[in-house]
Every structure is written in C-alpha cells, then in structure tokens.
Amino acid sequence: MTLRVPKAELDDGVEPIIERFGKVPAPIEATWHSPDVAMATFELGGRAAAWDGVDESLKSFAHMAVSAQVGCGWCLDIGYFMAQNANLDLEKASQVPRWREADVFTPLERRVMDYAEAVTATPPTVTDEMTEALLEDLGPRGLVELTGYIAFANLATRSNVALGVEAEGFSADCEIPLAEAVRA
C-alpha cells in the first residue's frame, strides 16, 4: 500500500514533530494537508502518553494490540520502537501481534490486550466481565484512561490505514524482531 493522498507540503509547524521523531513521520506527511487535524492528533497522542493511571507497558501493549488488529504497520513499527526507547520488556512487546499464542504475558496483560481488541471490534464486543476484571485490576481512573488510550489508538491506526500510511522501519533498530500478526 502507498499513500492514498499526496505528501503534503510542510512548513515550520512540523518542527516539534521532527524534534520528537528525528524526521517527519509518514502520518504527518499524509495529514499535513490539514495542519489542524495533524497537530490535534499529534497533541492528543502526546497528552494520552502522559496519562499515568495505567502502567506504560500496559498502554503500549494495548496500542500495539489495536494496531495489529486494525492492520496499521506504521503504528506497530513505531510502537515497538518506542517500547524499546522506554526500556519496556522487548521480549513481551515483540510478541504483542501474536499475544494469544505467546506464553510471555501475565493474566493482566492478556486482559488488557483482550479488552483493547474488544473496544476495537466493530461493533465493540466489550463485556461486563471484562470491565469488572479491569476495574478490579486498575481502578476507575485506570480503566477510564486505558479506554481513552485505546480510543486514541483507534483514531491513529484507522486514520493511517485509510490514508495508506506504511511502516517506516523504526523497529529495525530493535534487538528482537517484531513478531508477525496472526491473521484469522
């Protein structure tokens, strides 16, 4: 797949993004046709990343589970690279695309990824049992933040897939290769 929109002409407004990533990421090249949309998405992603009611690894695994389900190679690529940069467990992070088959995850991590997939399904397949278990694990604040984080992941992944954004090779710098997603 290639970009379904031409690369946008960029201006000085992309500087904060370049500072964070070291280059202009493909989603910005696609969305800068509307700088308001591009910056709102970038800023929301930054704000969601700063929420601290849920462990960073759980948020990372949730976002990567959404990315694998939706098929956003860019999000998996950057998510795995960012997991390495945050010193998260790379053995686990590398297995998120095949988390149901992998034996490295705790029961809580599995509940989080199952919930991420249930929120992402169309229509959502979230059950009372899922939310009750996560409410017990994370508390009300944690469950609300996890749900919001998953909702943001859906915004990012679905926008990228719709616009034809592909992986850029960020994860190639990681010691452990990222597992391939298991397709049903």
Can you summarize this structure?
This protein is mainly alpha-helical and 184 residues long.
Mean pLDDT: 93
> What gap, in angstroms, lies between the N and C termini?
21 Å
Sheet having the most strands: none
CATH architecture of the domain at 54-173: Up-down Bundle
Low-confidence stretches: none
Total number of helices: 8
Structural class determined from secondary elements: mainly alpha
> How much of the sequence is in beta strands?
under 5%
The CATH homologous superfamily of the domain at 54-173 is called AhpD-like
Helix content: 55-70%
Overall shape: globular
Q: Which radius of gyration do the C-alpha atoms yield?
A: 16 Å
* Order of secondary-structure elements: HHHHHHHH
How many DSSP E strands?
0
Reading off the top of the CATH hierarchy, the class of the domain at 54-173 is best stated as Mainly Alpha
Quote the CATH topology of the domain at 54-173: AhpD-like
List the helices and strands and how they pair.
Elements: H1 15-21, H2 26-31, H3 35-50, H4 56-70, H5 73-85, H6 90-95, H7 107-120, H8 128-163
Helix pairs in contact: 3-8, 4-5, 4-7, 4-8, 7-8
Mind explaining what this structure looks like?
The protein is an all-alpha fold and 184 residues long. It has helices at 15-21, 26-31, 35-50, 56-70, 73-85, 90-95, 107-120, 128-163. The protein has a domain at 54-173: AhpD-like (Up-down Bundle). It is globular, with a radius of gyration of 16 Å.
